[in-house]
Amino acid sequence: MRLYPAIDLLDGKAVRLKRGDYAEVTVYSDTPWEVACSFEKMGADFIHLVDLNGAKDGERVNEETVKKIVSSVNIGTEIGGGIRNLDDIEAYLKAGITRVIIGTKAVTNPEFVKEAVEKFGSDRIVVGIDAKNGFVATRGWLDVSVLSAVELGLKMKSFGVKTVIYTDISKDGCMMGPNYEETLKLKNETGLEVVLSGGISSLEDVKKANDYGMNGTILGKALYEGVFTVKDAVALISGRQM
Length: 242
Fold this sequence. Notes:
By secondary structure, the chain is of the alpha/beta class. The chain is built from 11 helices and 12 strands.
């Protein structure tokens, strides 16, 4: 299982939102590239980036900060938030991002994902499935659709997508533990590689994700609150990498 320490960007700063609420922001660093470097030093081999401004407004608001992060580390990076066209994807890949996460657009215009996979390859395109009560949310989690996570997953698989990131909004930023049940349902019913996101609150949660056979786990607020470190999590699953 791969670990993905997360850096959520808002106005160029590393922040965390509570349940995706833009009114509930905690700023953790004014220099997110230094946060990225610290994650790399502690053993991370991939970093998960989110442009929160982009997710809400549909533009690459934090692009310069992203470029600085990418140039500061020598490990894989992925980014989501505000990816609305092929030019957005190309710009990030040219900047050195390893893979790009498509979220809202996968719901509002599924064919866009098909085009992206055909142009850039399935290793460079990941779909973010953010859900509340099993139904997909879009536009920075501000809107909830009538599409189920499994339905979206199956459609994305038919377009050549191999990996999805599943986030349970009700758990994200709350340190309440992940929604293993819905995440496993998505994995088992679609056969996709699924990265668990939202609610990791302890090393025990990380261990469970590994034991359940998740392909990856995103680590967020627990790192910033000092519950455990990337180094702790890497040590926990070392020797049991999947």
